[in-house]
Structures are given as structure tokens and as C-alpha cells.
Amino acid sequence: LGVDLSRRKDHTAVVLFNANLELLHVLKREVSRQSLVQFLQDYTAGKLERFLRTEARKSRPINRYALPSTNTTNIIQLPEITTGTFQTIVLNNSQNVVVFYHSPYCAFCHGISYVYLTIARLMHNVPDLLFTRLDGESNDLPWEYTVHHYPSILFFPARRKAESRAFPTNLQLTVNNLAQFVLANLNVELRLLGMLDLCRRWNDKQVG
């Protein structure tokens, strides 16, 4: 359930789970007769806030790319989003944000990571465009931002966060398809910059 018992007295927690709405509520106060009664009264009155798990796992891929032309190493590390940082980073109206939803139990996610990181590297010079990752297994989000399968990639456009787009499930997740998906969701000016950047890098044979 994502409740850290190590920080609780007697390693004990009280939770209420609404199976129909898939909502979890956790008693925040110390367990006592009075707190339990108040907890149940607040639940009945609809005053309890939903409990959201949040955990920032150490991102395994600090990815290194050897550039043939310079024989140097290009390092890219993507921000790992949590429940607590989703609002300030992903819903930042001034920025276009791409989110890669993954799970430690999804074997396919590891293969897709290479494609995603390749595009993030190729387009890292495009202004106001941020590529991020989110461990959906360890971080609960409001239902409108929750995905139902992994891997999933969502694009949250600047100043139009309510118009987020998901990478089509009927398309193969390749470098070309993901590049076209990101470009299609940028405004005209950034789309042109992105296309020029991609063309230059592809011509330089920097795509692995």
C-alpha cells in the first residue's frame, strides 16, 4: 500500500480502502480510541484526503553516449518525477513536458528507455522542452494523470496542460515515431527548431 511503517509508533498504521473508487485513506495521528473515532467520522463525512504514495527511486540509467566525431562522452540524466514534484514540474505552464511512465516490473520498459533517452538527447537543445521519467508503481497521481499500462509516454503542452496527449498504442515505439509524436505536439516555432536540430544530428550520425 506504500505506507512506511518504520516511521510509525509500534510499526502500526490504520487505513481505509474504498475498493469501488480505488481510494486509500491513512490515519495520520497516533492510533487511539479517540483518533479512530474521529477518523471514521471524517471518512463518513467525506473529509479525508486521498493517500498518495510517493517515492523517488534512484534512476538507474545515467546514460553515456560516445560521439564518434569527438570521441567524448555525452551524459544525459532525466529528472525522476514523484507525486510531490508532479505539480511543479509537469504542470508548469511555461514548459512542454514529456513524461515516460515506467515500472520496475516492466521488462519492456528497459528497451523503450533507450528510444526515449535517444530522443531526449537529440532534442535537448529545444527550448522549453523537458523529458522526464515517473515510476508509476511507486507514485500515485490523481486519476486524470494515471496510466493503465507500462510503458506509457504522455506529452503535456505548455499553457495547455488539460490537452495532454498519449503516444498512440497502435504505433511501434521507435526513434522516428517518438520524434514525430513530440514534434507534432510542439507549437510551430519550436517544431521548426526541433526539426532542424534532429536533421542536423541525424546528418551527423549521432543516432545510436
TrEMBL record:
List each copy of the Thioredoxin domain by range: 80-163
Pfam families found in the cross-reference section = Thioredoxin (PF00085)
Which SUPFAM superfamilies does the protein's record reference? Thioredoxin-like
Superkingdom, taxonomy of origin: Eukaryota
Protein's name in the database: Thioredoxin domain-containing protein
Native source species = Clastoptera arizonana
